[in-house]
Design brief:
It is built from 5 helices and 2 strands; from the N terminus they run H-E-H-H-H-E-H. By secondary structure, the protein is mainly alpha-helical. The protein has one domain: Skp domain (Protein Binding, DinI Protein, Chain A). The protein has a two-stranded parallel sheet with strand order 1-2. The chain starts with a helix and ends with a helix.
């Protein structure tokens, strides 16, 4: 999202808030990202992701160490190795470097895909929870805190939304 678009969205949100407030409407503010990230479901999913991918991360660290050892050996043994031995070590290092890059990219892609699925599902559910809170409190407008210059702390429903989410969607 471009900066210009964000500014336009912020101005639009503020104008809507100003109109709503002037008509004695009820407004609330939420940090949706924090509300989602603070849920028990996300915390549990984060720990599960870390555990799931820990073996692959350990394998990458092992490969990284092997590559460092080869590079160190090439530096300390410079001039002492035969050309063939140096060429073999160099080739071995290049293979490990390619393997390390491929494994790292694959791991990052897998983690990103799974994390995005979890966050997308949780964000959708959180929006439903916020809608319910707005209806229960007869709120006319809920504004994202990132687009607000100032709001009284009493208007912030972030913690309430997280608690309502945890109640409605306990981690499995």
């Amino acid at each position: 999202m471009t900066t210009k678009l964000r500014v336009m969205m912020a101005v639009a949100a503020l104008l809507l808030a100003a109109v709503a407030v002037s008509a004695q409407s009820k407004v609330a503010v939420i940090d949706l990202q924090r509300a989602v990230l603070d849920t028990a479901e996300i915390k549990k999913a984060s720990a599960a992701l870390e555990a799931k991918y820990k073996p692959r991360q350990t394998e990458i660290e092992k490969l990284r160490k092997e590559l460092e050892d080869i590079q160190q050996k090439l530096q300390t043994m410079a001039g002492k190795l035969t050309q063939q031995a140096e060429a073999e070590l160099t080739m071995q290092g290049q293979r490990k470097q390619r393997d390390l890059q491929r494994m790292s990219e694959d791991l990052q892609a897998d983690v990103d895909d799974e994390r995005n699925d979890i966050l997308g599902r949780t964000s959708q559910r959180m929006q439903e929870v916020v809608r319910k809170i707005a209806e229960d409190k007869s709120l006319d407008l809920v504004v994202l805190s990132g687009n607000v210059i100032f709001a009284k702390p009493a208007l912030d429903i972030t913690a309430e939304a997280t608690a309502a989410y945890d109640k409605a969607h306990p981690p499995k």
